[in-house]
Every structure is written in C-alpha cells, then in structure tokens.
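Hey, can you fold this one?
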Amino acid sequence: MSDKLLKVDIKKELNEFDLDVDFELKTQNFGILGPSGCGKSMTLKSIAGIVNPNSGIISVKLNEEEVYFDSSKKINLKPQKRNVGYLFQNYALFPNMTVEENIAVGLSKKDDEKVSELIKNFRLEGLEKRYPRQLSGGQQQRVALARIIAYDPDVILLDEPFSALDTYLKDQLRRELIKLLENFEGFIIMVTHDRDDAFQFCDKLIVMDKGKIIAKGNTYDIFENPKKVQVAKITGCKNISAIEIIDDYHVKALDWDNIILETEEKVSENINHIGIRAHDFTFADKDDVNVIGTKDAEIVEMPFEWDIKLANGLWWIYDKEIHKHDFTMPEYIKISPKTIILLE
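Sure. Predicted structure:
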C-alpha cells in the first residue's frame, strides 16, 4: 500500500487564534504534539467531520481516493460517511451496554463471529457481559478500540488517549496500544501534549503552537534538533538561553551568567538561542572544554535522579539508583559541544 496518502490542508478561524494546518501523511503512526489549547484536537475533529474548517481540503487514499472535505468543490461529508474511528479521551462507551454490545455497535450488521474474534484479539475474554463501570481504564480503552476496528476504518484518531491515566498504567497501555494496532493498515493519528507518548508511538510528528505547525518531520530528528525555541520547550528541553555570537563556534549564554560555550555546529547569524538537555552534562576536570563550576548548586533528591540547579541557572539531572541516597557533587561538570542545540 505504498501509494496511500492522507492529505490535510485546512484553515479555521477560532476565538484565540486561526488554525492553519497543512500536512501529508504516508506513514502509519503519526503524531501531533503541542501544549493544551494549541489546536491539536480541533485538527482531529476537522478530519472526523465533527467541526467544519472555513477552507481547505481533507482527503484519504488507500485503494481509492476519497475526499472528506473540499471547500472549493463544496464537499463536506458527514461524520457517519467518513470512514474514521475516533477514540475520545473518555472512550465514550455506552454505559447501558455490555462489552460485546458496545463492540457490536461498530458493525453494520449482526456478526457474532466477528465480535468474538475482536474480543479474543483485544484480550477481553471473560468480560463480555460486563458494563463499562465494571471495567478498568485499560479494559475500557481496549473495548473502545475493538469497537473502532470492528467497522474497518481507514483512519484512527487518538485524542490524548493516556491523559487520564496514572504513570504506571500509562506506560503499560502505551506499549499495549502499539501492539494492538501493529496490524492495522490505515492511518493512525495521535494528538498529545506528552512528549513521551509522541516519542514512543509516532514515526512522524508535527509540533503545533497557537494553531500553526512549527515543526514537522521524523520524530527522532525533531527531538534531536528542534531548531526553534518553542519546539525545544515542547520537546522537553529544560535549559534555554539567549546568546551573543562571539565567532563561528563560540557563543556567550546571556541567561547563564554570560558563560562562553563552544559548539560543534557552526553558529549562523539567524541563531539567537541555545538549548542544553538536562541529562547531557558529565563530570569534568577544570581544563576541559565547556566546563561549568558547581559551587552553591541546589540539590533535590528524586526517586531515580538527582535534580540539581546550578548557581548560574542551569538545570542538571543526574540518574541515581533508588536505594542510594548519597551524592558527592563534582567540582566541575561539562557539556559536549556536539550536544549544544542551536535555536532560532
């Protein structure tokens, strides 16, 4: 299915900002990452037909192309006519229906064999007669997914699927969801504000802020080289400073007591900030490159890391074992020139 394509190019006027989204999707697992209220869910609802853009086009091609929305041709299919499965944050199961009845809702005609197959594939055996209130969060999510898969959609939309779950359950269900959907041949789009969800689940990614796409590409590439200050923040970079360029490979970090740092990448004139990931510091000798003193650092112990704020404002996270509670602060730490992120 190498010719499959999902095209979204839409604009919509909103109270807070104007939504302006344009992307084409050929891969399966696609993510939209951004802070709350940036337009992520509005993009999903536009694809599903729940809300109407002011202009643009939404089309899906698997075997044949189907246009869901085209403002220039006055095409706007109703949600029921779009072959899209939408997994809502609260799963939207019918409370007065059992597990098997909820799954059967997704079928166009009665098919007990298909329902039984889905119950087996989604590991829901023994729960067929239970109601949603009798299920755990993970079980509810599996029922909702089975109901979506039942009608063989071209597109599955996942709206913050783990936002209401605790950390342990979230990690478990994230792996489970990847496995459950690995044989699905259509498109899967997940919107999330959680960088871990995006990093683990999505092959390709766009990053949104205030209705606009501010980065797009391979997920690994965006995290390794966010290029822009706001993208670095959204992907979890804890240290960002405005800079003064000294020469092609040296900058002065204005927010970290004007320390001079060497970069591996040439600093072009459009670069006005740098970023440093909090885990990227290592122990150092006084004469090493990019050395930073640790005098007067503030140390907070967490279960699996030491959370250290240096006197100049830099944030250092150093991994630890849970049963170890002593930490000898080195006199100096350093940052490798190759791990300094250049930002616009």
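The helical segments are 40-48, 99-104, 112-121, 137-150, 167-180, 195-201, 219-224, 229-234. Let me know if you want another pass with a different chain boundary.
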